[in-house]
TrEMBL record, chain A:
Membrane association type: Multi-pass membrane protein
NCBIfam families (UniProt xref): ECF_T_CbiQ (TIGR02454)
UniProt-recorded name of the protein: Nickel transport protein NikQ
CDD domains referenced in this protein's UniProt entry, alphabetically: EcfT
Spans through the membrane: 28-59, 71-88, 241-259
InterPro entries: ABC/ECF_trnsptr_transmembrane, ECF_CbiQ, ECF_transporter_component
Gene Ontology CC annotation, any one: ATP-binding cassette (ABC) transporter complex
Compartment annotation: Cell membrane
Listed Pfam families: CbiQ
GO terms, biological process: cobalt ion transport
Keywords noted in UniProt: Cell membrane, Membrane, Transmembrane, Transmembrane helix
Automatic annotation (TrEMBL), chain B:
Name of this chain's protein: Fused nickel transport protein NikMN
Recorded superkingdom: Archaea
Gene Ontology cellular component annotations, sorted alphabetically: plasma membrane
GO biological process: transition metal ion transport
Membrane-traversing stretches: 7-28, 40-60, 72-98, 104-126, 138-162, 174-196
Major location category of this protein: membrane
Membrane-protein topology: Multi-pass membrane protein
Subcellular location field: Cell membrane
Swiss-Prot/TrEMBL keywords: Cell membrane, Membrane, Transmembrane, Transmembrane helix, Transport
Keyword Cell membrane: yes
């Protein structure tokens, strides 16, 4: 069930029509779809959106099981709150459980809405990150007018992200090979906590030292505090316009249908 | 504590975004004026480090786990709440856009909770408490408060959004984050601070010593 950050990056470097779209277009599309999903309150609208997203997934040749796995991996964070809605909202009682718990109609509807919205938004983000390498996402943000200073830090961060995940994995392997387990009740809780603390401290120190090291190597190449980044110029082609017009048209159509009571 | 997309209405998301953009403006201004150029790569690499640290589970008594946020300790070590804000903002942007942890419309509220509140409470908590209870306990209390207050704010925000009732939220989120605050944020930040103080005291900003 565990999908590492490296797998995600490998998946995003494959080839397909969707992979080839310009990063800016993909980023804008992601925002449009998510904002619409948060705006709408109709389950059927959300279902149609999800179908459109799955069509895009199929076009991008990402395996559906990989796609579903990634969504399931992130779902618990917010799904938890959605699942408890039926017990929390006041309204018409559908069912009474022991311990004074009641399931209400309003709660079920609201919970379903939250959960569907969550699935759409996660689908969109997972799709974006499955078809766009991190570096391309950050470059696109820069091209779309993201503040230069922060964009520079961002693009450096993603460069070292993978290094630190490897570092973390190394530490974990080293601990595992010495039979260390954070859940092992035979060792004292405070001792285990201390070990985790030391691990985190090591990562802190390593990032501090790496940061200095990177600075010196940048200095050696003439860094003066101003960042000049050369990006590969990419042109927005017809296909990019087509996809964005198609998506906006689909959203407007769905919304019109919805407003006129057809769905 | 990462609020996902769809849990906060759009108009409220806009408010949090505006707050974050205003603080972001001052943070960039601060970085340009006060941060010497060597700290910029440091912020970037530190953000990558925090990213990995947030992926690390810390055992919490009753069988669950939590993770560290890290805004307070970054703010304390680098000597400015803006440092905590910038590092956390970077981490949350990558988590939101590339991993779906947190959201895009809720990016503003998440940066507000963990970056702004976490960084400022952590830094000024430390500054205020240091003369009263000495350095090390001040790190512990400030880091604890930074996480606990963000969690409480998170409950209030979800309440305003109409997603979660206030009392139940305080009870569950409050209790859970009280423990994570003590163990995950407080104790671990203290261990990190003591260790760095011992090994590389030159890395800690002069304001914190």
């Amino acid at each position: 069930m565990n999908i590492s950050i490296n797998t995600i990056e490998q998946e995003s470097c494959k080839n397909s029509i969707i992979h080839d779209l310009d990063g800016r277009i993909k980023l804008i599309l992601t925002f449009i779809v998510i904002i619409y999903a948060v705006y709408t309150t109709d389950l059927l609208v959300l279902l149609l959106m999800e179908m459109y997203l799955i069509a895009l997934v199929l076009l991008s040749k990402i395996s559906l099981s990989y796609f579903a796995k990634r969504i399931l991996m992130i779902l618990p964070f917010g799904g938890f709150i959605a699942i408890f809605q039926p017990f929390l909202k006041a309204g018409a009682v559908l069912y009474t459980l022991p311990f004074g718990l009641t399931i209400t109609y309003e709660g079920v509807v609201f919970g379903a809405l939250l959960l569907s919205r969550l699935i759409i938004c996660l689908s969109t983000v997972v799709l974006l990150s499955s078809v766009t390498p991190l570096e391309s996402i950050v470059n696109s943000m820069r091209k779309l007018g993201f503040p230069k200073e922060i964009a520079m830090i961002l693009s450096m961060t993603i460069r070292y992200l993978f290094l630190f995940f490897d570092e973390l994995e190394n530490i974990r392997n080293a601990q595992k090979s010495r039979c260390f387990n954070i859940w092992n009740k035979k060792t004292s809780y405070l001792w285990r906590l201390k070990q985790v603390g030391y691990t985190i401290m090591m990562i802190f120190l390593k990032s501090f030292e790496k940061g200095e090291f990177v600075y010196f190597s940048m200095l050696g190449r003439g860094y003066t505090g101003e960042a000049v980044a050369y990006n590969k110029q990419s042109k927005i082609v017809k296909l990019d316009y087509f996809i964005i017009i198609l998506t906006v048209a689909i959203i407007i159509l769905i919304e019109l249908f919805h407003l006129n009571g057809i769905i | 504590m990462h609020i996902p997309d769809g849990f906060i209405p759009l108009w409220q998301c806009v408010i949090y975004y505006i707050v974050v953009i205003i603080v972001g403006y001052f943070a960039v201004k601060w970085a340009k004026e006060n941060l010497d150029e060597r700290k910029i790569p440091l912020l970037a690499v530190l953000a990558a480090g925090i990213f990995a640290i947030q992926a690390m589970n810390i055992p919490i008594p009753w069988g669950t786990s939590g993770h560290m946020v890290g805004a307070a300790i970054v703010a304390i070590l680098l000597g400015s709440p803006f440092a905590g804000f910038l590092v956390l903002a970077i981490v949350l942007i990558i988590q939101g856009i590339a991993f779906g942890d947190g959201g895009l419309t809720t990016l503003g509220v998440n940066i507000f909770n963990m970056g702004i509140v976490g960084g400022f409470v952590g830094y000024y908590g430390f500054k205020g408490l240091k003369p009263l209870i000495s350095k090390i306990p001040a790190v512990f209390v400030a880091a604890f408060l930074s996480l606990f207050i963000s969690a409480i704010l998170c409950v209030v925000e979800l309440y305003f959004a109409g997603t979660f009732p206030l009392a139940t939220g305080f009870y569950f989120m409050g209790l859970y984050h009280f423990v994570i605050g003590i163990v995950g944020e407080g104790l671990i930040s203290t261990i990190v601070f003591i260790a760095i103080n011992k090994i590389r005291p030159d890395l800690i900003s002069s304001g914190a010593i």
